[in-house]
């Protein structure tokens, strides 16, 4: 029996769950009252959950494993909320940001 590329329907479900979770964390990040209360902790919990899941589910991007999705989301969230990389990137790529209307 041949396996489906990118884990077939289960892979699609994993990618969909990743997109939903990243939307939730982005909403928390953009809400000033929740930015430093929820986003860092949620990212850390997702990273730790992914590392724990790696003990049961081998991490694989090609197979869209749950452990890969959780680790990538947790690490991305922690990097995104870190002030150093964001401020360094913002200073070099101002053309990527939206400019307020004059």
Q: What does this protein structure show overall?
A:
There is one protein chain. The chain is mainly α and 102 residues long. The relative contact order is 0.14. It has one domain (5-82). It has helices spanning 8-30, 39-53, 66-81, 83-92. The protein is built from four helices and no strands. α1 (8-30) packs parallel to α3 (66-81) and α2 (39-53) packs antiparallel against α3. The longest helix is centred in the first third of the chain and has 23 residues, at 8-30. The N and C termini lie far apart (62 Å). The radius of gyration is 16 Å and the shape is globular.
Terminus-to-terminus distance: 62 Å
Task: Give the helices and strands as they follow along the chain.
Answer: HHHH
Residue share in helix: 55-70%
Query: Which secondary-structure class do the elements indicate?
Result: mainly alpha
**Proportion of residues in extended strands:** under 5%
Our Rg estimate from Cα atoms comes to 16 Å
- The gross shape turns out to be globular
Number of domains: 1
Count the E strands. Answer: 0
The stretches of 5 or more residues where confidence is low (pLDDT under 50) are none
**Main beta sheet, described?**
none
Number of helices: 4
- What's the mean pLDDT score? 75
Topology:
Layout: H1 8-30, H2 39-53, H3 66-81, H4 83-92
């Amino acid at each position: 029996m041949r396996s489906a590329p990118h884990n077939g329907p289960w892979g699609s479900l994993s990618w969909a769950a990743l997109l939903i979770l990243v939307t939730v964390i982005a909403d928390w990040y953009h809400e000033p009252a929740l930015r430093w209360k929820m986003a860092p902790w949620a990212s850390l919990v997702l990273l730790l959950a992914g590392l724990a899941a790696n003990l049961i589910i081998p991490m694989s991007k090609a197979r869209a494993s749950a452990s890969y999705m959780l680790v990538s989301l947790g690490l991305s969230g922690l990097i995104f909320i870190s002030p150093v990389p964001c401020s360094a990137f913002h200073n070099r790529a101002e053309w990527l940001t939206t400019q307020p209307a004059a």
